Amino acid sequence: MPIRPLALAIASLLAVPAVHAQDDATDLDHIVVTATRTPLSVDETLAAVEVITREDIERAQPHSLPDLLRGRAGISLSNQGGAGKLTTLFMRGAESDHVLVLVDGVRVGSATSGLVSFQDIPVDAIERVEIVRGPRSSLYGADAVGGVIQIFTRRAAREGLHGRGHAGAGSHGHREAGIGLTGGSGRAWFAFDARHARTDGIDACRGIGAPVFAGCFTTEPDRDGYRNRSLSARVGLKPGDAWQIDAHALRAEGENEYDGSFVNYSETVQQVFGAKASWMPSERARLQLIAGRNDDESDNFHDDADRGDFATGRTTVALQGDVTLRRGVLLSAGIDWQREEVESSTHYVRRERDNTAVFVQAQGELGAHSLQASLRHDDNAQFGGATTGNAAWGIGFARGWRAYASYGTAFKAPTFNELYYPFASNPELDPERSRSAELGVAWRGERASVRLDAFETRVRDLIAFDIVSFMPANVDRARLRGLELGGDARWSDWSVQGSLSLLDPENRSAAAAGRDLPRRARRSARIELDRAFGRLSLGVTGVAEGERYDDIANTRRIGGYATFDLRAEYAFANDWRVQLRLANAFDRGYETVAYYNQPGREWFVTVRYAPAR
């Protein structure tokens, strides 16, 4: 079973104290582990970080992970036809495969395409999400050019045996149900969740076939349904005061109908397994061993005719140690190992590759100043070595104010498709590389906070299709520049959260210099407003995105849009709630990918049982 060390070690080391050890973190909502691979409060991180808690998820009532992430600072999503359809994520304007995604510390995504199936990860299995914007290759290796998203699955919240469950229905034949069970006593605990959801969907694509050919290159005016079944489990054991063992598993199966001239139905599997052992001989030292496996599988059909299959696996192993040298100074070092494998009906010249990496990180406090520095070297069996680094400085001043500056490098390894796909690949490709600089200032009071971040990233050796050689090549460059403003406030029974992103995603390749990179909105915003009236609570989520282009030449424009989701929740008994959500309440028509439809107005009703924590 393959294992991915550093990425796993990082997330695991971070995840151990924050996942089971809720007792160890006095306020889990403000402790993150993804930014530095060690537990750190949000206020101490020298990076742009956002945490989405389980309470945030249940309040917002999203039906998918893309729905939960839509419009958040630095994030732009492109969806091809509604629920369950291919969804790609761009962070700070970087490519859709330039974001590293972890599930409980395990790197996920397809080794052939480089994409993560966000649409298949069940939101009901998520305990919290940590979003770190900006390069993190110096800790995690390849892919963390735009940032890192780490998803933590649900865990036991307290001792004793407790159940939870929900059932709901809504527009387009949507229906779903889920159950969960948690238990804990003394030094052992477990959590289990299962979910089934399906929808008849909408007509995914308004594309046209012969003689014009656009969009999905066919005309299929029908509903394109989606079904998802998922199981997740976590167990933990603390055999002694110095030891902790944790294991987790997630499996999500999807059945997806869509429009296409070659493929219009697929069956998918997303599977993640991981285990970690943590040893703390003293308060000043910790050693962790982490192992994990991710499988990404897809069987494809067109009107019952087999169109091939793809299955990629990634095994990771990581060993990480952390030592407090003196008060306020933490030194971390580790080694990561990873193997990627491909099994497919398509012939690949090479079907596996290994990557070994070592890293070191130092964090320190000097009065009002904070310092962080990290360095990593990756040795890949296919493309050779890559060294990345990151340095950051921060200072606290006045009352509740903090400023920081950082500089980091990152790289993206070529995918198996780019390297070995028959007749359209280039085994001589080099990794894509980036340099990023960032400035930020933040203020936090008792009931409110605000943060402003400015960044610039320059990417070179971008992989693009070269029409001269008729294969991919390192020919493109890009400059990504932007501002992100975010904040939240709570007073009395009111709460508000919001963000605004401004982006200049400039393509600097020879063929398209000065144009925008496709499918990135230059402006986006999100606001959530909630009000509690005793057992009743009401809320609204507004998301707005400016225009974008769907092609490199910037000739196919996609207009901007704004949607508003209304929601209500009523606690009609102890531990019981009924939730109502009206998505896209004003029935706004819009697209995020040219020719691919988005749902209009939709309603959902959910009855939920969840014991108070």
Automatic annotation (TrEMBL):
Keywords: Cell outer membrane, Ion transport, Membrane, Porin, Receptor, Signal, TonB box, Transmembrane, Transmembrane beta strand, Transport. Residues 1-21 form the signal peptide. InterPro entries: B12_transptr_BtuB, Beta-barrel_TonB, Beta-barrel_TonB_sf, Plug_dom, Plug_dom_sf, TonB-dep_rcpt-like. The keyword Magnesium does not apply. One of its GO terms (biological process) is monoatomic ion transport. Belongs to the TonB-dependent receptor family. This is TonB-dependent vitamin B12 receptor. The lineage of its organism: Bacteria, Pseudomonadati, Pseudomonadota, Gammaproteobacteria, Lysobacterales.
